[in-house]
Amino acid sequence: MTQPEFYNLIQSAGYPVVYHSFKASEEDPTKPPYIIYLITGSNNIGADNKVKVKINKYRVELYTSKKDLEAEQSLENVFDNASIFYDKVEVYIDTESMLQIIYEVEI
Known about the structure:
Structural class: alpha+beta
Organism: Sinanaerobacter chloroacetimidivorans
Radius of gyration: 15 Å
Number of helices: 2
CATH class: Alpha Beta
Strand content: 35-45%
Number of domains: 1
CATH architecture: 2-Layer Sandwich
Largest sheet: 5 strands, mixed
Protein name: Prophage pi2 protein 38
Number of strands: 7
Helix content: 10-25%
Shape: elongated
CATH topology: STM4215-like
């Protein structure tokens, strides 16, 4: 799956999506829930000194203003329907008063 295809896939969860970070200003902040994703590395498979299979490690971050089971389920349904395995971590960001749900996937 290419990066544009992955973007379209996670966009189907129904929330704003951007690579790495939003360019929100104080006059127009991005309101949660929203999704940020980025490539954190690769786990390529090689043979004969060549990359035979490219596998990117993605970090998909769902930001919400409070625990939002509907938003989490929406994104998890996208992964499940595409047969994408994920690991999940939840972090509360005090300075932003936001909840960050981090999904780690390899594609």
